[in-house]
Design a protein that fits this description.
This protein is mainly alpha-helical. It is built from 5 helices and no strands. The structure holds protoporphyrin IX containing FE (2 copies).
Amino acid sequence: MKPLLVAYVRAALVYLVLGTATGVILAIPAGKAWLESLGGRPGLAHAHLNLVGFMSFLIFGISYHILPRFSGRDVYSWPLVRVQFWVANVGVVGMAAAFLDGAWAGLLPWAAGVLFIAFAIFAYNLWASVRPLGR
Ligand code: HEM
Ligand code: HEM
């Protein structure tokens, strides 16, 4: 596996630990009260750390590793895989922060837009990488 794709898998595992830790804190009444005292929506920070940070990053890394092999060609653009990695990290950390702390809520539209760009890059790059499958 390419080091860049290992970085996706490792990032996914870091987000898994952060996401589940937030879940445990939310499961403890005093912890939930503390997170809610920040004035944000901590349940949504927890959900996106797990669903985007962990699950989507794992899907990104594994998809780029496996799916192009099925069509007998390389990933369409490795530079885009690298750009997507950083854009997605900025987006998911920004979204988690914006959901977690009311003072950062104004960040949400920006982080959401950044995260969307990462998903759009993924869709474009993977689409182009598996194209021969549809023939
Ligand atoms: C140690 C593991 C986990 C614990 C202890 C945990 C705990 C919780 C708790 C306590 C809530 C309610 C939050 C609230 O009161 O607002 C919650 C919500 C949620 N969790 Fe987890 N969770 C865990 C792992 C996961 C994972 C792995 C995923 C996804 C892959 C996930 C997805 C969600 C979602 C989507 C919600 C609903 C969020 C919302 O709509 O506000 N959780 N979890
Ligand atoms: C560009 C990517 C994404 C953005 C910008 C985004 C944004 C949001 C926002 C703003 C909310 C809160 C909606 C509200 O005000 O109630 C939300 C809720 C949620 N999102 Fe995302 N999201 C993204 C990707 C995802 C993905 C990939 C998943 C799952 C794999 C997901 C699962 C959820 C869930 C489960 C909720 C909670 C729904 C509820 O309980 O009402 N999101 N998302």
